[in-house]
Amino acid sequence: MVSLFKIIGLLAIGVAMAAVTLASHELFVGTKETSACMQCHVMRPYGNDMVDPESNLLAARHYRNGWIHEKQCYQCHVDYGFAGSVTAKMDGLRHLLRYTTRTYTEPIGLVHPFNNQNCLHCHAGTPKYVAESMHDMMADVIASNETPCTSCHGDSHPSRERRSPGHADYEALMRAVELPR
Question: How far apart are CA 5 and CA 13, in angstroms?
Answer without folding.
Answer: 12
